[in-house]
Amino acid sequence: MPKLSAADIDRLRASKEHNTLEFKAARNQFSREEVRRYTVALANEGGGYLLLGIDNSTRNVVGTQAFLNRTDIEYWLFSICKFRVDVHEVEHPDGRVVAFEIPPRPVGHPYEVDGQYLMRAGESLVPMSFDHLKKIMAETGPHWTAEYSRLDATGQQVIELLDTQEFFELLQLPYPTGQTGVLERLEHHHLIRRTGSSWSITRLAALLLAKQVAEFADVQRHAPRVVVYTGDTKKETRLDQVSVPGYAVGFRSLIKLVMDQLPRREVVVEGLRRNETLVPEIAIRELVANALIHQDLTLTGTSPMIEIYADRVEVSSPGVPVVDANRFIDGYQSRNEDLAQMMRLFRICEEKGSGIDRVVIEVEAQHLPPPDIRIDPNRTHVIMFGPRDFSEMTADERIRAAFQHCALKWVHRDYMTNQTLRARLRVDESRSSVVSSVISATIDAGLVKPDDAVGGSKKFARYVPFWA
Question: How sure is the predictor about 221, in pLDDT bands with cuts at 50, 70 and 90?
Fold first, then answer.
């Protein structure tokens, strides 16, 4: 990263490129959230610079004391925006300047803050209009899944390549008596298209219905992979298997494979012994479905993965989510709408995005540690842990459990209280002060806040997520 100089700052001050520059005096301080909002808006408009310590009207350097720790704000921006912003600290003769160098958004992919795709309008930040958003979305042309994976196939070849029997079973429809009825139903769902006297098979059809994804060269690298390790590290692999059929027709067998490989433990319930898997099947089903549906299919050489360890299960998929990780429970936006729609039609998922809700509900019911969502530059991970008591949870896990519990309560039109969190964490009433400390730590982390509707009452204190 070339460091900006005082001369570079002077050139930016003299520039007429108003659409790529934003000046703020910020003599003493500037809100992190405002930095985030301007970062997203400038990225959406092609990238540029946000410069603190420069008067917006005169462009004179006035100096700033904001963000004395450059590395800290740089790391925070990456953790919340999921793309790198270089932060420069420049000692100009007239005062200190902090310059945020913001890259442009990817083609066809606008950035958002709390569900709003921001742009600038004069001195203000405003949500993009629907027409503006539509124009951005159209930049990439036809969606990856709508393009063809196989051209010039005969009707018989379509039926040989795609599991049409399972397709009709998933739709809960009787299988047609003739080939024509099968092809017409596939065409009705835009999975194949007639081209002259032959048929073209879309990538969506190959992803969902292929008997063997290896028959479709441009789709096979997106086949989910299951890896089982003997311990709690990657040191020794016991199984490494790639799923053969398409997502829809192979979903049940994929989940069965995962469940068969999960470590088991013996528990006693009402005097009866029974075996339980490390994590519940409902959670695995929802996480795997989400990984398949919300992955970035434009990334090559990578696929959804289910990694099973002795103490946890990690489900990951290519790409950075289009919804902020802290809004997974209440927010929903699919990167692959056509894929999501078909998976909903097959009753494999609910298109409105209740998957993570169900995971957290099941985790709370079984008093498991909270799922850990981690975002890498090109990959999204969700980690599910096996049983651990409250005393064995780390401070971060306790905070995460409180935030997820609070968000789930809010989504279901309820509130988190000390009592509800005690029940979730399985802590008895005599230790309510310990849970109060967890709530305080979660507030300090900026993830929850007291509900103002009850004022300052400690007796009736209740809490809502930071975004409520």
Answer: very high
Residue 431 tokens, joined = 């230790």
By three-state DSSP, how is residue 257 classified? helix
What region does 347 belong to: left with phi over 0, alpha with psi -120 to 50, or beta?
left
The candidate with the shortest Cα–Cα distance to 361, out of 280, 435, 293, 267, is: 280
What pLDDT does residue 144 have?
87
Q: How far apart are CA 428 and CA 433, in angstroms?
A: 10
Segments of 334-428 assigned E as strands: 372-376, 379-385
Q: CA–CA separation, 155 vs 186, rounded Å?
A: 11
C-alpha closest to that of 38 among 83, 115, 100:
100
Collapsing DSSP to helix, strand or coil, 462 comes out as: coil
Rg (CA), the chain: 26
What average pLDDT does the chain have? 89
* pTM reported for the whole predicted model: 0.71
398-419 burial code (b ≥16 CB/10 A, e <16): bbbbbbbbbbbbbbeeebbbbe
Enter the tokens of residue 160. 């040989």
